[in-house]
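Shipment paperwork, digital attachment
Item: protein structure file
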Amino acid sequence: MNPQFKKGVLELCLLHVLEAKPLTTYDVLALLSERLDINENTVYPLLRRLESETLITHEKQYGEMGAPRKVYLLTEKGQQEKTKLKEEWTEFMSRINDVLGG
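Attachment content:
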């Protein structure tokens, strides 16, 4: 897939998968990489940026063994941004389909 296509929608995709349920970094990477062919060099900076913009947050989950896991959650602000981005994406895709004759 063209990297420029992915770049424009990755934020929307990440917010969307976090809307369904809290995910670890590994889970986010696994979900997005299998569908969009991306790697951790793309996901980690995006997670940091979205957290600094307060669109997502994290909490630590403690298990019986090993180090605590960082789990990312969508904030209310993130939910609003995801809704806005999805509306913009739908409109954009409609216009692209008009141009391409689909």
